[in-house]
Amino acid sequence: MNIHTVATQAFSDQKPGTSGLRKQVPVFQKRHYLENFVQSIFDSLEGYQGQTLVLGGDGRYYNRTAIQTILKMAAANGWGRVLVGQGGILSTPAVSNLIRQNGAFGGIILSASHNPGGPEGDFGIKYNISNGGPAPEKVTDAIYACSLKIEAYRILEAGDVDLDRLGSQQLGEMTVEVIDSVADYSRLMQSLFDFDRIRDRLRGGLRIAIDSMHAVTGPYATTIFEKELGAAAGTVFNGKPLEDFGGGHPDPNLVYAHDLVELLFGDRAPDFGAASDGDGDRNMILGNHFFVTPSDSLAILAANASLVPAYRNGLSGIARSMPTSAAADRVAQALNLPCYETPTGWKFFGNLLDADRVTLCGEESFGTGSNHVREKDGLWAVLFWLNILAVREQSVAEIVQEHWRTYGRNYYSRHDYEGVESDRASTLVDKLRSQLPSLTGQKLGAYTVAYADDFRYEDPVDGSISEQQGIRIGFEDGSRMVFRLSGTGTAGATLRLYLERFEGDTTKQGLDPQVALADLIAIADEVAQITTLTGFDQPTVIT
Question: What would the pLDDT profile of 471-495 be if each residue is shown by its tens digit?
Answer without folding.
Answer: 999 999 999 999 999 755 556 789 9
